[in-house]
Amino acid sequence: MSNRSNRLEKVEVRLKWDPSPRNQPPHHLDIIAATYSADAPYGRPVYIVHFDSRSPDGTINMSRHSQTGQGFGYVEAMTLELDRLAPSFARVVVGVAIHQNTGPKTFGDLSNAGVLGVEGYAELLKDDFAKLAGATAGTVAESVRDASGTWEFHEMVRGFDSEPIVFSTEMGSAPRP
Q: Which pTM was predicted?
């Protein structure tokens, strides 16, 4: 499930979480994608896509967004049309961040949270954030273009302790040993 090396074209990443308890501020999570160039696959992102944006070429965009988690099942979704990305891109990292504007919240503070990555009916990723219980943000997957131009999808669950803006600049960094 974590590695699929046949030709990827259109991947959807979905996010779910239960709303906060009554009389509590809402839990607000966001899917974030960052693109990296072939010249600097672990450098600064070329661009970042989140709830209020889309990629300049329309290849990465949010199709559903929730600020509360209310709804049935997966309430937020981002579509990545990898087959349409320009050849200058070599890597796309997808993460999830929890807004911290109502006080510190970690994935451990949420209930029924999860992420699902699919291409068509094929499940590429499914995670419940248990490994990120103490984190305020985390990467969930990366797509990497190989030398032949084929995209590979890899699960990459890694926690961060940062707010969404800072997280979006550090999420594609090389893992520390």
A: 0.91
